[in-house]
Amino acid sequence: MQTSADLDTSASALRLGDDALILGQRLAEWSARSPQIEEDIALMNLALDQVGAARALLTRAGELEGQGRDEDDLAYLREEPDWSNALLMEVENGDFGRTMVRVLLVAAYQLPLYDALRHTSDEVLAGVAGKAVKEVTYHLDHARSWVVRLGDGTQESHRRVQQGLDELWPYAAELFETDALTARLVERGIAVDPSSLESPWRAAVEDVLREATLTVPETTWRPTGGRTGAHTTGFGYLLAELQHLHRAHPGASW
Amino acid sequence: MITAEQAREVLARVTDPEIPVITIEDLGILRDVQVEGERVVVTITPTYSGCPAMAEITADVRRALAPTEVEVRTTLSPAWTTDWMSEAGKDKLRAYGIAPPTHRVAGPVPVTLGRRGTDLVLACPLCGSTDTEQLSAFGSTSCKSLWRCRACREPFDHFKAH
Lengths: 254, 162
Hints:
The complex is a heterodimer of chains A (254) and B (162).
Chain A: H1 4-28, H2 37-65, H3 71-76, H4 87-90, H5 96-117, H6 123-151, H7 155-172, H8 180-187, H9 198-211, H10 233-248
Chain B: H1 4-11, H2 24-27, E1 30-36, E2 39-44, H3 53-65, E3 69-74, H4 87-96, E4 98-99, E5 132-136, E6 144-149, E7 155-159
Parallel strand pairs in B: 2-3, 4-7
Antiparallel strand pairs in B: 1-2, 5-6, 6-7
């Protein structure tokens, strides 16, 4: 019998896992399309780290949910409203500069998040966080060097990376939103208060943007809804690509 | 029935599918071997969370102990670090042309949002020169980065310290 505490922890693992899986899927779209071979390899490494964390997180979410769903059921058989990833993870890649801006915005969030989660009272989540924190450190380094190179590069690269930043920036606010679930989880020592991550995130990102000669966007538009299943139009296409093989050949293995 | 010691001895010869000169014991990913009744329970740990070799390693572990019934458990905690790699393993990597992870000070590693140093100095595993440079922090597998030696001009992999 699952307790309401188990279900809360499951929902928390699902949010983390959905974030990781959907970002991993977006990054994987660059496979064989990157500007150079080293970058293709780098982006696939980033994607693989995210998908690896997602597998463990979705498995944990399924166990605690108690409905007999495993990582594959959760990844391949849920419809759009059942996904709880933040919108920032799912919006289209855009060009390479915008892709790197997203990696920067997400890694600067995941780093303090996973660092704090190493001390969660859920042993499995703590284990995932302990591995992920080291991997995300590489992601942040990588994104930082590209954003600086492009921002402080040519007029054209500066213009495009600034545009990507302007487009993605409003989506970041959702990462730091709190709700009744996060409040209960923080009280139990399971989750990190998302709002506490905003100031370290902002400091780290602004540090990079300054070096990259980019302007911090000013916006009052705060798109939200991903955590409760209200997703963007492009998300349906992403899920179609992610899920079609599994749905076309249910139960297939090799 | 096989004993835990015998099982461990057999498993110590199972090699990594990506780097076949090094065994899973050398790598430090073979965590525990126990006999529970008629079964051998083997605990392994991934180097990186997305390591695709885990499925292959699991299959290799089963094959090595066949026909004994084997349960392979994967654990993430405590997290694997390159400190788990044996000195013999590091020598084998070097001989294979992969720069082994450089020694890291024991104890907690501070996690920081600030800039990380890229001042790592690696000796080329082929000619020994330290006139080397990193080409990319990401290599052909999750656990490696890509380097080049300026002295002998050869590219080489580095097993990332982790």
